[in-house]
Specification:
Layout (H helix, E strand, L loop, with lengths): L5 H12 L4 E4 L12 E3 L2 H26 L5 H11 L7 E2 L8 E2 L6 H16 L2 H11 L11 E3 L3
């Protein structure tokens, strides 16, 4: 509740007072445990988390490559790689914009960029930005799942 600068503390209080399923602050280790569906943070902290995740992806890819040499580990290698292949996964959505804005990694491959384009079309077809804006303006959760959890991550 009192972690972070004034902006983060204010965001925490705003989310806590809303009807969203806000679970409070989480720790870094909770990111990969699925504790929250959405994590809100400031730009610098978010960027550090993304860069760390990319580094984990590079390491996981190296582990997967070494496992591929052993035929009995090839399936495991593919699973590891797919979980961390940021160059092949589409993009991340940037919120706080008036239009759909997806950010692809600079190393994204053609397939990842194509996937991001398809995702952008689906988001637009489902009126994601207007729906999100309306829900936040009404201060209520109007999404299809009332179980989606929201958390903040303070540094």
């Amino acid at each position: 509740e009192n972690k972070g600068d004034a902006t983060l503390c204010e965001a925490y209080q705003t989310l806590k007072a809303s009807s969203l399923h806000f679970i409070g602050n989480i720790e870094g280790g909770d990111l990969y445990r699925g504790k929250a569906d959405v994590v809100v943070t400031n730009g610098m902290t978010g960027n550090i988390v993304l860069k760390l995740a990319e580094s984990m992806g590079i390491y996981a890819s190296q582990v997967a490559a070494s496992l591929k040499e052993d035929p009995s580990s090839a399936i495991l290698a593919k699973k590891i790689y797919r979980n961390f292949a940021y160059t092949e996964e589409g993009a991340s959505i940037l919120l706080g914009t008036r239009k759909i804005c997806l950010k692809c990694h600079g190393s994204a491959k053609r397939e990842g960029i194509a996937e991001a384009g398809e995702w952008a079309l689906r988001l637009e077809e489902h009126r994601f930005i207007p729906s999100l804006t309306e829900a936040l303006n009404k201060n209520e959760d109007s999404f299809s799942s009332n179980e989606a959890s929201l958390a903040t991550m303070a540094h």
